[in-house]
Amino acid sequence: MHPALHSWRDELPPALVRILAYGGGIALLSTLAAHFFQSPPVMEAITPVHRSAWIEIERPFPAFALSIPEATDVPANYAIRRHAEGGGRKDILSLGQADGIAPYLQVEIYRPGVEQPRFADPRTEIVSGAAALGPVEVQSDSELLASKFGPLSIVTFATSKGAPRHCLAFVRAYDDPRMQLSGWFCQGGSDFIERSTLACALDRLTLLAAGSEPKVGVLFAQAELNRSFCGQRNPLLAPTPKHRALWKAAAAR
């Protein structure tokens, strides 16, 4: 055979060939063992992102108004929240700072969808709605508060979050239309807002647009007939009279 046709392996000693074969086999077995017996990769726990059931509407078109002329320099806010699955709607009007010692008023008009089969008792509704304030020393008042919206259940509480305040809360549920009116009036110090002051503030709550719910329009129209104008029943002489203890007098306390 021509020397050029010889394989290079024929030139190696047999012992060296065996050593190379054994080394290759050992390397292959080591690779397989490392693959099968290595520790599984550590997977970090994935924390689920909590999504609120309520969606806040951007640039809400107000359906209600809370006109208090003596509080024109107080921060005001209007929010609308929709339930993602049930279709309910909450219109939330507020005046003042939620975490300050100055008077703070919040009114919520809740028109539920299928997410709320029925309303809870007044105490439970207030504690749930005012959770951001951390209600403590919660007490239900057996005496109802007369207002243009009819008798309101009254609940008092102190705040445990933010500045220390005392709050006078109210709630009333309607069957037809299915709606709940609730909220609270808070101030710093040891005194609660006077009941007449709260009734006067709610006297200023009016409807701007009922939309596709004419029964809500009827309810507010009836409320206007019951309006006391903060104790002055003459709508021509005093359509929106200032109440001495409604806002600035309450703040002065």
Order the strands across the largest sheet as they lie in space: 1-3-4-5-9-8-7-6
Q: Could you report the average pLDDT, rounded to the nearest whole number?
A: 83
Helix content: 10-25%
- Into how many domains do the coordinates divide? 2
- Sum up the overall morphology in one term: elongated
Tell me about the largest β-sheet.
Answer: 8 strands, antiparallel
**H-E string:** HEEEEEHEEEEHEHH
Radius of gyration: 35 Å
Strand-residue proportion: 25-35%
Q: How widely separated are the two ends?
A: 118 Å
Low-pLDDT regions = none
Task: Please outline the helices and strands.
Blueprint: H1 14-37, E1 54-56, E2 64-66, E3 76-83, E4 89-95, E5 104-111, H2 122-129, E6 135-145, E7 152-159, E8 165-174, E9 179-188, H3 195-203, E10 205-207, H4 214-225, H5 248-252
Antiparallel strand pairs: 1-3, 2-10, 3-4, 4-5, 5-9, 6-7, 7-8, 8-9
Please give a structural write-up.
By secondary structure, this protein is an alpha+beta fold. The chain has two domains: 7-36; 54-252, no CATH class. Helices cover 23% and strands 28% of the residues. The protein is built from five helices and ten strands. It has helices at 14-37, 122-129, 195-203, 214-225, 248-252, and strands spanning 54-56, 64-66, 76-83, 89-95, 104-111, 135-145, 152-159, 165-174, 179-188, 205-207. The strands form two sheets. Strands 1-3-4-5-9-8-7-6 form an eight-stranded antiparallel beta sheet. A hairpin with a 4-residue loop joins β8 and β9. The model has no long low-confidence stretch (mean pLDDT 83).
